[in-house]
């Protein structure tokens, strides 16, 4: 950031810039000669703020380009006003060109404002993450707010200028450092984890290597919270089989399976989601590791619990990937299944896991067949009765194609 240093000044700059940004956005959304009229709300707001922002913008060198754009806008509006009421061909083309130019300048204004906001926000975030000790000297709520704002911003989609700012700030390294520091509060570490996951979705090609090079996966698993499991699910969906390979090679699958025994329901539910993701993307070694840890026995026990049950009476259950059917009967059935799963998150969990292996990306066809037979064998060993075994076996055979 430039010269403005006090919180009051920064707040005032942000207030003016947000108003400018909104007016610019509205002007781009309605690019017609009438919307570019100086009496239109967007133009009126921009011209009023152009005068008001003069002293504010002059204090920050990063905003000099924005000041230039606002001056250009005023000139274009003046040109447009001079052609108002004229019906000649020249006036017509001048209005069209001026309107297009105004829309283009409005886009530049919005872009410049967003770049300033991104720069300011990243500077505040990196400064907060660098503080030692992290939370004894800073309000936790403020840091959580900064992390949430950063996550929201990068979740809006790829932006090259934002990526350059992120790389120059080394914020990924700072987020990872805090995430992996057990002396920091879990709340802060979890929010850092969500920010990391957002960066992976922002540009996987640039940031995924840093996930493999650092201790991030170990830190997420060691946190043993449902939010950490949620982030792990997000990362698996983004990085797919290579991340599952990393989890397996680091010996973290036994720990993940053990979370199914936790008292906290949310942790168990998110662990189940994580296991389903590993089943979908995992290769033979990862699936072998889960079965060796007695996963099927645990799933049978969960399905037998009050939060379990089976979906076989409702018809073929949804594998979670969507089938695109429009039939109303099928739609009603799937709606009932979703409602049932909301209150019974472990219903038909054995067959749901088997389906993930069957339709997933990590296994060869012969490996799928072998694992299905292994699952059926382990179901029979873990079941409390022949009736229970028959129900679960039927779900596995019905839910996954032969």
Layout of helices and strands:
Blueprint: H1 7-29, H2 41-52, H3 54-58, H4 64-83, H5 89-130, H6 140-154, H7 160-169, H8 171-179, H9 186-202, H10 204-213, H11 216-223, H12 226-239, H13 241-249, H14 253-258, H15 265-281, H16 284-292, H17 295-304, H18 328-343, H19 349-359, H20 365-382, H21 386-399
Helix pairs in contact: 1-2, 1-5, 2-4, 4-5, 5-6, 5-7, 5-8, 6-9, 8-9, 9-10, 9-12, 11-12, 12-15, 15-19, 17-20, 19-20, 19-21, 20-21
Can you summarize this structure?
The protein is mainly α.
CATH architecture of the domain at 7-116: Up-down Bundle
The computed structural class is mainly alpha
Helix content: over 70%
Q: How would you spell out the order of helices and strands?
A: HHHHHHHHHHHHHHHHHHHHH
Unreliable stretches: 1-5, 33-38, 86-95, 318-326
Question: What's the Cα radius of gyration?
Answer: 28 Å
- Identify the CATH class of the domain at 7-116: Mainly Alpha
**Total beta-strand segments:** 0
| Average pLDDT taken over every residue | 82
Shape: elongated
Strand content: under 5%
| Biggest β-sheet description | none
- How many angstroms separate the termini? 62 Å
CATH topology title of the domain at 7-116: Four Helix Bundle (Hemerythrin (Met), subunit A)
Number of helices: 21
Task: Characterise the protein shown here.
By secondary structure, this protein is mainly α. 73% of the residues lie in helices and 0% in strands. The chain has 21 helices and no strands. Helix 5 (89-130) packs parallel to helix 7, helix 11 packs antiparallel against helix 12 and helix 12 (226-239) runs parallel beside helix 15. The protein starts with 6 loop residues before the first helix and ends with a helix. The relative contact order is 0.06. The model is unreliable at 1-5, 33-38, 86-95 and 318-326 (pLDDT under 50).
């Amino acid at each position: 950031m430039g010269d403005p240093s006090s919180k009051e000044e920064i707040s005032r700059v942000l207030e003016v810039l947000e108003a400018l940004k909104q007016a610019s956005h509205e002007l781009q959304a309605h690019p017609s000669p009438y919307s570019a009229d100086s009496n239109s709300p967007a133009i009126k707001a921009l011209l009023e703020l152009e005068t008001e922002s003069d002293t504010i913008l002059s204090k920050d060198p990063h905003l000099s380009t924005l000041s230039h754009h606002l001056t250009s806008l005023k000139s274009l509006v003046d040109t447009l006003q001079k052609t108002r009421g004229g019906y000649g061909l020249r006036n017509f083309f001048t209005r069209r060109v001026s309107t297009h130019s105004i829309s283009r300048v409005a886009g530049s204004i919005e872009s410049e404002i967003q770049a300033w906001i991104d720069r300011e926000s990243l500077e505040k975030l990196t400064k907060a993450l660098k503080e030692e000790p992290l939370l004894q000297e800073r309000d936790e709520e403020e840091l959580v707010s900064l992390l949430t704002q950063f996550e929201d911003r990068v979740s809006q989609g790829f932006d090259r200028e934002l990526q350059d700012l992120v790389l120059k700030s080394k914020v990924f390294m700072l987020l990872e450092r805090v995430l992996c520091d057990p002396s920091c509060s879990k709340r802060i570490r979890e929010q850092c984890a969500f920010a990391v996951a957002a960066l992976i979705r922002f540009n996987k090609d640039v940031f995924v290597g840093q996930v493999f090079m650092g201790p991030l996966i170990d830190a997420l698993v060691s946190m043993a919270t449902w939010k950490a499991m949620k982030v792990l699910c997000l990362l698996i969906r983004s990085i797919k089989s290579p991340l599952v390979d990393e989890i397996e090679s680091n010996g973290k699958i036994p720990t993940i399976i053990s979370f199914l025994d936790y008292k906290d329901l949310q942790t168990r539910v998110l662990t189940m989601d994580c296991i389903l993701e590993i089943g979908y993307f995992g290769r033979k070694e990862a699936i072998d590791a889960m079965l060796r840890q007695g996963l099927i026995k645990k799933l049978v026990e969960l399905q037998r619990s009050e939060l379990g049950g089976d979906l076989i009476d409702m018809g073929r259950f949804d594998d979670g990937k969507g089938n695109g059917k429009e039939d109303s009967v099928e739609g009603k059935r799937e709606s009932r299944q979703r409602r049932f799963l909301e209150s019974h998150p472990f219903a038909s969990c054995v067959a749901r896991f088997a389906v993930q292996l069957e339709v997933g990306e990590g296994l060869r066809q012969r490996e799928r067949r072998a694992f299905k037979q292994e699952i059926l064998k382990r179901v029979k060993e873990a079941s409390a009765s022949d009736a229970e075994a028959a129900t679960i076996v039927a779900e596995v055979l019905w839910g996954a194609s032969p």
